[in-house]
Write a structure and sequence with these properties.
Blueprint: E1 5-10, H1 14-24, E2 30-36, H2 39-49, E3 53-56, H3 65-75, E4 80-85, H4 90-98, E5 103-106, H5 111-122, E6 127-128, H6 130-137, H7 154-164, H8 169-176, H9 180-194, H10 199-212
Parallel strand pairs: 1-2, 1-3, 3-4, 4-5, 5-6
Helix pairs in contact: 2-3, 7-9, 7-10, 8-9
């Protein structure tokens, strides 16, 4: 049996943390390994506990969720961060995802859907609710790579399409019968050719140009 997904809860409201813990602890494949009440404590606990997934609130006193996310990336912490918030403004959505969040869901998400989201981001997928993707697509700067799609090879286009489907490198490797190392090389080439920062932007670029073309 596979090891359970180790989850860290970071939210300044104790009631929210308690509710999340109560639900997640009944999931056979998810283990809540710790809690934190603000971003700074969340970073410290993530470094100490090395969870697979961090459920991170955005608005917290002191260091907020976005700054905590950036700090985790600076430290090279491999945890996948799933933003869980009641705030839907674009000014929180976009910075969180560009700081490296693996997904973004709202606090009123159905409990089973939250568990599915944790499993999805842990598996390497990018999880965006439709309105979140729309917010990113309309932001200034999402036109990066405009007109450069023609520079991609046929194989790179296949890889890009699978990134847009939310596939992890391992799943792309299996689908295309390639090594993970080769897939990583293709992903790096795609980002370089399209002048994009990460695979989230690559997925959005693919969705945008499929819709417009």
């Amino acid at each position: 049996m596979a090891e359970p997904i180790r989850v860290l809860l970071v939210d300044d409201h104790q009631v929210v943390r308690r509710g999340l813990r109560t639900f997640l602890e009944v999931q056979d494949d998810i283990e809540v390994v710790g809690e934190a009440a603000d971003g700074a404590e969340g970073v410290a606990r993530a470094e100490e506990l090395r969870p697979g997934v961090v459920l991170m609130d955005v608005r917290m006193p002191g260091m907020d969720g976005i700054d905590a996310l950036r700090k985790l990336r600076e430290l090279g912490n491999p945890a996948r961060v799933l933003i869980v918030t009641s705030f839907t403004e674009r000014r929180t959505v976009v910075p969180a995802l560009r700081a490296g969040a693996a997904g973004y869901v709202y606090k009123d998400v159905d409990p089973e859907a939250l568990a599915a989201a944790i499993r999805s981001v842990h598996a390497g997928h990018i999880l965006l609710q439709p309105e979140v993707a729309d917010a990113l697509l309309t932001q200034e700067g999402t036109n990066s790579g405009q007109g450069r799609g023609g520079s991609l090879t046929e194989r790179e286009r296949e890889v890009l399409g699978l990134i847009a489907d939310g596939r992890s490198n391992r799943e792309i490797a299996r689908a295309l019968v390639l090594s993970e190392k080769t897939v990583k090389t293709h992903v790096s080439n795609i980002l370089m050719k399209l002048d994009l920062a990460d695979r989230t932007q690559a997925a959005l670029w693919a969705v945008r140009h499929e819709a417009s073309g």
